[in-house]
Amino acid sequence: MVKTRRYMQVSYRNGQPMAAYLYLSGWPGHESARTELVDAGLVVDFSESDEPLGLEIVDPESVSIREIDDVLRGIDEDPLDPGEVDALKRPGKREG
User: Fold this and answer.
1) Best exposed site among 55, 62, 84, 92 by fewest CB in 10 Å?
2) What is the pTM of this model?
């Protein structure tokens, strides 16, 4: 079985990101056993073995890149890469 790479899926409405999910690197087939609200608008999904599976960004407009990166560091993940940041950017996006 091949380990998956991290990737982001973003849903848009009228050209603006309305929700996003960052799938973390891992093994296919793992399902979420629990979720944890770690910050307003940021939810981490964990497997039965307590491995982080993904980060739900409930409302990309309500959180900064720094807040997302802080959560990722807290679960031992690298901060967002430039492509992931670009997917969340729009006019007026808070960077700090």
Assistant:
1) 92
2) 0.84
